[in-house]
Amino acid sequence: MREVLIPGVNSKKKQMCFDWGPGEMLVCETSFNKKEESETKPGCPFIYIIRKDIDVYSQILRKLFNESHGIFVGLQRIEEELTGKSRKAQLVRVSKNYRSVIRACMEEMHQVAIAAKDPAIGRQFSSQVSILSAMELIWNLCEILFIEVAPAGALLLHLLDWVRLHVCEVDSLLADVLGSENPSKHDSFWKLVTILVLQGRLDEARQMLSKEADASPSSAGMCRILGDLMRTMPVLSPGNTQTLTELELKWQHWHEECERHLQDSTFASSPHLESLCKIMLGDEAALLEQKELLNNWYHFLVTRLLYSHPTVKPIDLHLYAQSSLDLFLGGESSPEPLDNILLAAFEFDIHQVIKECSIALSNWWFVAHLTDLLDHCKLLQSHNLYFGSNMREFLLLEYASGLFAHHSLWQLGVDYFDYCPELGRVSLELHIERIPLSTEQKALKVLRICEQRQMTEQVRSICKILAMNAVRNNRLGSALSWSIRAKDAAFATLVSDRFLKDYCERGSFSDLDLIDNLGPAMMLSDRLTFLGKYREFHRFYGEKRLTDAASLLLSLMTSQIAPRSFWVILLIDALPLLEEKEVVFSAEQTYELMRCLEDFASRRPVWREPGVQRIQEDVENTKLEMLRLALARNLGRAIIKEGSLEGS
Amino acid sequence: MFVARHIPADHKDLIHDVSFDFHGRRMATCSSDQSVKVWDKSESGDWHCTASWKTHSGSVWRVTWAHPEFGQVLASCSFDRTAAVWEEIVGESNDKLRGQSHWVKRTTLVDSRTSVTDVKFAPKHMGLMLATCSADGIVRIYEAPDVMNLSQWSLQHEISCKLSCSCISWNPSSSRAHSPMIAVGSDDSSPNAMAKVQIFEYNENTRKYAKAETLMTVTDPVHDIAFAPNLGRSFHILAIATKDVRIFTLKPVRKELTSSGGPTKFEIHIVAQFDNHNSQVWRVSWNITGTVLASSGDDGCVRLWKANYMDNWKCTGILKGNGSPVNGNSQQGNSNPSLGSNIPNLQNSLNGSSSGRKHS
């Protein structure tokens, strides 16, 4: 359970009102008890905005999220191809990829920590590095036990690698000592040799001993003997064809030989060498003396196994693990969360590992990706039949939801939702609607994502929001194109009406490009069709394609798609055509026009503003009279033209 | 993990409600100083007050945003017995430069005889509709048939609850399987121990809202109520703020063929009850996926409740004040490492083992 302290709020005296936002929470001090009218109190409370910020250290973690996203998607995609023997190898490879991404992130963050000028920031980055390191430690162990599923023999080798990778600064110490003039006289010489032995790096330990032998002839003999013991310790090497039983047998003999040397006090005169021999015999007391060098109980565990039960079976691990933990802590301290997680892993209790990690780590990144990978290994099902796959989805949904709070990482979240078969789609629908559409680019990106997934309702809604916003800001062209994309006929009608109203008022259209290039989208609504066709009429007239213009104008009037309020304009638009030198309207067309005119005149729309009405009516009446005259004249001319030779 | 920043609210009296808009880029606050303020978030993440105006002649209890499909629209309700609808007008370019915007009143809803205690917009698929509830025990549902003309609202339904109402919640589910549904809570403290939560459902045949359920087990005054967003569940989840936090599930029972005209019957189960707030719980609210419930109570804290994948509800977070005074306007806040560990010892376990290592 996480506790967040909000500075400035006095929880003893006041309560809080709040609201959820897509990525933040609003909180404000208030007092709920009084519902009646209150006297004015002096007070200037603050509004608090609480954000679950998944990306405080931007650049570096972003890389982690981005790269792990790539691995995740890749894993989902190759799922069908993962078959047979190569399946395990491929899954191990995926696991190693994840781990290398973590390590790369650690390395970068470490560099930043060192370079930080402000020590507080440096400390924060360092603690991040520690957490990443813990995550990699856990992941690595899970890889060995659950994905690699190392059998007895190989198991120990993997665990040795694991320990070597995560514990102690052996290499730099090695370099230090070797680089000095007299390595064996170096202060840390014996410390180094001990560490090497603890980590099972016996070849290097032997080399160190030979230096000691060279430098100090009195102990040369002992060094040689111990060196020989080191050289002859039986180990299972990869590719070795001996069976486990053979190995055990050889090891037993070797162990007895070491024991004999100890009994014979071969190394009695060198406490260092004797201690090393005891370690190699797996003597617990000797090992525990090296607590400081071992640093933690799992190092102790692996060293102990190496020198007492090298052929340990996976199912027996947990016994040694528990006792190692107990021995190492020695009752002085209690296990910490990391210890419990590792113990759960040694017990092969995957569910417990995930549960403990979920509690200990406050970000879902780790558990989501690890659980997904384990699910691909078909491990969750056999362990947890009831909610196996649901747990994977639960964690992925949590992680992806968190990504949506970020202004650019949300795009990664989309893919995670895609691979959640139960609730992924509906979760994506809910989240994607809330993304603020601050730029056209972002809006288009969001729409593309929705369209690819046939989220038609979200497309409609987002386009509607954009169209509405455009209308409010009087950007009619933008409003129209969003309405078209939303396939929102009603809104397209509304915007078209606005265009037409604008034209009535100003005598010209805005956004001509858009209207001229509507194409089949014109069919979305009658009003839109009218708008498009009316513009076409204008174009015809501009290009002097007068007969086309005339026919179009007439069809606009007769097809009934023209709004009532526009009829006057259409009729008056006929005037210039009627006044052309040549006869544009045929006789029949002229009759039609006359009928439309009378039709209109008998059903004139009522003007709303009484003052303006008179003047408007007068102007209109004049124009209509002119039209009647022009029509009559045109009729005459048309009849003559059609009656004479060229007309028929 | 959590970054908290604060901005001075500048209200002259107690703030009663805060509300994010749909995208989380604007917010509104309302106060006993009778005004509403609107705040906008800039690209850089800073909040600025872009409008502040007197909305009522009494304390303003709640303020809420309509869905952005309807434009920039707010509703407020007040002790002055009215609720009002406001629309933002795109102003002169001068105003834009100064970062100010104008809100005009589109309508005043005056039907209530008493303080209007809550106002909520209906889910967007129902059109532009809102519900108010009052201390006179009546829930009123209004609709604006023309979305482009917000001055025309008509009172479509009056639902009598017989008890003084304190809160309402629309069921956000837009599934065709569910009729419109509204839950009403009452904080009536009169001695008749009537159940304080009623659920009304719209009937397509009668074209009226009829009572579908009463939660008999809730007998203490209810201060807030909230349906959870539905991710495709066949049942509904309702959270209630009363003397404790309660979460109920309502499973629709299959309608018998004979009573197809009546409201749906529900199987009601209580799935969680928490009294951690020690006394009264005043507000409950769901996150956008309905996976986390937040509540605030007399203990001065906001608590977060979440169900794990086994459907067990637990408290997963607390927001509380530490009481120390804060100065001025700080848009920066405290921050914790983001991949952070809840338990610092996780880091300590590794000290000395890997910091500063070279990796091969």
Automatic annotation (TrEMBL), chain A:
Q: Which UniProt keywords apply?
A: Membrane, mRNA transport, Nuclear pore complex, Nucleus, Protein transport, Translocation, Transport
Which BP terms in the Gene Ontology apply to this protein? mRNA export from nucleus; positive regulation of DNA-templated transcription; protein import into nucleus
Q: Name one GO cellular component term.
A: nuclear membrane
Annotated localization: Nucleus, Nuclear pore complex
Record GO terms (molecular function)? structural constituent of nuclear pore
Q: Which domain of life is it from?
A: Eukaryota
Q: Which InterPro entries match?
A: Nucleoporin_Nup85 (IPR011502)
By sequence similarity, the record places it as follows: Belongs to the nucleoporin Nup85 family.
Query: In UniProt terms, what function does this protein have?
Result: Functions as a component of the nuclear pore complex (NPC).
Oligomer and partners:
Component of the nuclear pore complex (NPC).
Its recorded name reads Nuclear pore complex protein Nup85
Q: Which gene encodes it?
A: NUP85
TrEMBL record, chain B:
UniProt cross-references to Pfam families, sorted A to Z: WD40 (PF00400)
**Gene3D superfamilies the record matches:** YVTN repeat-like/Quinoprotein amine dehydrogenase
* Stretches for region Disordered: 324-360
**Subcellular location per the Swiss-Prot or TrEMBL entry:** Chromosome, Centromere, Kinetochore; Lysosome membrane; Nucleus, Nuclear pore complex
Keywords of the record: Cell cycle, Cell division, Centromere, Chromosome partition, Kinetochore, Lysosome, Mitosis, mRNA transport, Nuclear pore complex, Nucleus, Protein transport, Repeat, Translocation, Transport, WD repeat
GO CC terms in record: kinetochore; lysosomal membrane; nuclear pore outer ring; Seh1-associated complex
Example of a GO biological process term = positive regulation of TORC1 signaling
Task: Name where the WD repeats lie.
Answer: 8-40, 274-306
A GO term for molecular function: structural molecule activity
How the protein assembles, per its UniProt entry? Component of the Nup107-160 subcomplex of the nuclear pore complex (NPC). The Nup107-160 subcomplex includes NUP160, NUP133, NUP107, NUP98, NUP85, NUP43, NUP37, SEH1 and SEC13. The SEH1 subunit appears to be only weakly associated with the Nup107-160 subcomplex. Component of the GATOR2 subcomplex, composed of MIOS, SEC13, SEH1L, WDR24 and WDR59. The GATOR2 complex interacts with CASTOR1 and CASTOR2; the interaction is negatively regulated by arginine. The GATOR2 complex interacts with SESN1, SESN2 and SESN3; the interaction is negatively regulated by amino acids.
- Report the family membership: Belongs to the WD repeat SEC13 family.
Biological role: As a component of the GATOR2 complex, functions as an activator of the amino acid-sensing branch of the mTORC1 signaling pathway. The GATOR2 complex indirectly activates mTORC1 through the inhibition of the GATOR1 subcomplex. GATOR2 probably acts as an E3 ubiquitin-protein ligase toward GATOR1. In the presence of abundant amino acids, the GATOR2 complex mediates ubiquitination of the NPRL2 core component of the GATOR1 complex, leading to GATOR1 inactivation. In the absence of amino acids, GATOR2 is inhibited, activating the GATOR1 complex. Component of the Nup107-160 subcomplex of the nuclear pore complex (NPC). The Nup107-160 subcomplex is required for the assembly of a functional NPC. The Nup107-160 subcomplex is also required for normal kinetochore microtubule attachment, mitotic progression and chromosome segregation. This subunit plays a role in recruitment of the Nup107-160 subcomplex to the kinetochore.
> What protein name does the entry list?
Nucleoporin SEH1
The primary gene name is: SEH1L
